[in-house]
Amino acid sequence: MKTHKLFESKSHTWLMFGRDDDKPNEIIDTNQYIVITHKNALLMDPGGIELFSSMLAAVIKQLPADKITHLFASHQDPDIISSLGLWDQALPSATLHSPWIWESFIKHFGMNNISYSAIPDEGSALKIDQVNLEFIPAHYLHSSGNFNVYDAEAKILMSGDIGAALESVEAPLFVENFDEHISKMKMFHQRWMPSNEAKNDWVSRVRKLDIDMMCPQHGRIFKGDDVKRFLDWFEALEVGVIRKPSAE
Amino acid sequence: MSELSTNYFVCVAEIAAKLDQATRIAQQLSLTASNARAVALRAGERAAGFRPLTDFIDRLAEITIKSSRSINLLAATLSQTSADKVRADSAIEHFNIVFIKAKDSPFIDSLDEVYQRCQTKQRQLDKSYKRQIDRLSDELIMLSNELRNAVILATLSRVEASQAGIEYQEALINVANNVEGAASKIKEHINYSQQMVSTLEEY
After folding, report:
1. Closest Cα of chain A to B143: distance in Å?
2. Can you give the pLDDT of all 203 residues of chain B as single tens digits?
3. pLDDT tens digits along A70-79
4. What is the pLDDT of residues A173-215, one digit of tens each?
5. Would you give the DSSP letter of residue B7?
6. B-side interface with A, Cβ within 8 Å?
C-alpha cells in the first residue's frame, strides 16, 4: 500500500493511501484518504475487508491508531466500508460519519463499539481540532445516499465515486492527460451514475467551491485545471445509460 | 443421510434442522398416542392394559418435543457464538499481519491494547463455545436415553395388543409399530447430530 502526502499546513495534513500491490487481483483498487489534525484524524472510505491489514499497517506508520477518532463512509458499498467490523475492534471509541439512510444497512458489517453519526440529506459540517470540513451532498452519484468531503483550507474535495476510473495498481496517482483519461472513466460514470438531474445539481454546487484537488475513491486525482475539465466533461455527459462495450 | 459437513456454521445449522425434523416426528407420535387411546377405549376391558401405555407414548412425545426445542435454542446460541468467534479470530489474524507489515512503525505499540482486548475476547468466546458444545452434547445424550424406552414401550404395546381381541389387535399393533418407527427415525437424527457435535468439538 502506497502513501502519498497531498497537503500539509500548520493545522493539518491530507494523506492518500492506495495502489496496494498485495491486494487480491479480483477486487477493485481503491484510494483511501486521511486528514490528520493535531490530536485527531478522520479516515475516509477506509475500504473493504480484504484491504484492512494493508490499510491499518499503512496508517500505523503515520500515526498512532487511537488518534483516528473519526471515520467517514461516503456510502454503503463493500469497497467503501466492509472493513467496518475490523475497524470496530481497532478503534472502539471512534465515530463513523455516514449518510443517515444507510445507518441500519452499514451496521450489517459489524459495529458494536463505534458510534454512528448520521449525516442529514442536506449535508453537515465537522470540526476536528481547528480544521473545518464539510460533508457535501452527492446523492445518486452513485449511491442514493452519498456525500463528498470538502476542505476549504486545503482546497481538496474527496469526491468518492465521482471522477473514479477503473485502473490497475500501476496507474499514476494524478491525471496527466485529461483527454486520454476520459476513456478510463466514461463507462463507469454512465453505468454507475443513475441521474442526470442529480449530476447537474452536483456540478453546479461544486463549481462554486474553490478546489485545487479532486480526489476520487478509484483511479487518479484531478489537479488544477483538470478539476474544471472534469466538471465540464461530467456536465455534458449523459449518465444512467447502458452501452455495449463496442459502442464505447 | 447426507455426508457430514466439515464447516462448523453448517454443522450447527444442520443440528438445528435435524432436531426440527425430530420435533415433527414427535408431534406425529403425540397423534399416535391420541389414536391409541381412542382404540383402547373402544376395545374396553380387553385393552385395559394398553391404556396406561398411551400415557407413556404421550410422555415420550412430550419429552422429545421439549428437548428438541431446547437443543434448537442451544444450536441458535452456538451459531451466534460461532459467528462472534470467527470475527474475533479474523481480527486477531488481521492484527498479526499488521504487526508484521508495520513492525518498524514508531506507532506500532498503539495497537497493543486493542490486540490484548481482542485476545481476551477470543479466549472468552472459546470458553463459551466449548461450554455450549458440552451442553448440546449432554442434551442429546439425555434425549437419546429417553428414546431407549420407546423400544420397551413398543414391545409392551405388542403384548397388550395381542390380548385386545382380533377386532382391535391390528390397530393396536399398528400403534406399536408407529412408536417404534418414530423412535427409530428420531434416534437416527440424534445420532447424526451427535456426530456433528463431535465435529464441532474438534474446532
Report:
1. 37
2. 445 555 777 888 888 888 888 888 988 888 888 888 888 888 888 888 888 888 888 888 898 889 888 888 888 888 888 888 888 999 999 999 999 999 999 999 999 999 999 999 999 999 999 999 999 999 999 989 988 888 888 888 888 888 888 888 888 888 889 889 998 999 999 999 888 888 888 76
3. 999 999 999 9
4. 999 999 999 999 999 999 999 999 999 999 999 999 999 999 9
5. -
6. 87, 90-91, 94-95, 97-98, 101-102, 104-105, 107-108, 110-111, 114, 117-118
Which of the following CATH numbers is that of domain A2-247: 3.40.50.300, 3.60.15.10, 3.40.50.1100, 3.40.50.700?
Answer: 3.60.15.10
**3-class DSSP string for chain A:** CEEEEEEECCCCEEEEEECCCCCCCCCCCCCEEEEECCCCEEEECCCCHHHHHHHHHHHHCCCCHHHEEEEECCCCCHHHHCCHHHHHHHCCCCEEEEEHHHHHHHHHHCCCCCEEEEECCCCEEEEECCEEEEEEECCCCCCCCCEEEEECCCCEEEEECCCCCCCCCCCCCECCCHHHHHHHHHHHHHHHCCCHHHHHHHHHHHCCCCCCEEEECCCCEEECHHHHHHHHHHHHCCCCCCCCHHHC
Q: Which residue ranges make up each domain of chain B?
A: 8-80+135-201
CB spacing of A61 vs B105 below 8 angstroms:
yes
Question: Is A111 in the B-facing interface, judged by CB distances under 8 Å?
Answer: no
Whole-model pTM: value is 0.84
Partner residue opposite B87 with nearest CB, options A52, A57, A85 = A85
Mutate to test the interface with B, among A15, A56, A88 (most CBs of B within 10 A): A56
Which residues in A lie closer than 8 A to residue B87 (C-beta atoms)?
85, 110
